[in-house]
Input
Amino acid sequence: MSLLWKAAISSRSEYSQIVLTPDIEEEMRKCLFNQKIIKPMLVSIKISRLYDKNPNGFAFDYFKGSLYSPFHRKYKKYFSFCFILKGFFIEFFLGLHYKDRKRLRVINPNEEIIVAPYLDYNDVPELIQCMVAGYRKNVEGKVRIKSI
Output
């Protein structure tokens, strides 16, 4: 949760898509400062482990060593903020009702075990767009992609 809060209060350009209302920022700050669990209706978290289902595709280390700017998603009833960090896809949902939290399999704060199911990177269109844009910049000589 601190990841989302720190990104929201940051003035860095790579976090520009992470915008929370002052009320949510303050509630998160209080929970973090007092080491309290935030209400799941306010913020819920889902963590997935990125992988490539193609046997000849990217290795786990590729996703673990890649950096991507966070982005947001808008759904019909709610929205989320997404981070890709150390090979994990972390999605923070705001305003999820109980039924949606169960359906999306977000982390239950009352459970002791966190399950991070595998997620094929091809199922994250924003990641594909970023990879294509990065490759284009590499071809144009604007960046250099390091082989792993």
About this structure: The radius of gyration is 17 Å. The chain has a mean pLDDT of 91.
